[in-house]
Amino acid sequence: MIDSDGDGAKVVRLDGDSDDGGLPFCIELWDAGKADAVEKMLARATSLGLARAIFKAAGEEHPGRRITVRQGRRILADSEER
Length: 82
Known about the structure:
alpha+beta
């Protein structure tokens, strides 16, 4: 589910605990049929630069699909905002 925090930034509400295993950036492919549901996590990354490179490659592999880069609850990049 997408929300916004007090600063107006987009955030994702997650159920349960998440252990990032030292990989704080998450690249996610969103469900084409449900605007507010992640279909699957494509990758995790140690740095924002690496996460953005994966995000770009994922966009080429999944054209027209929504892909996001997330750190915790904060969405850092969103293919719908290009």
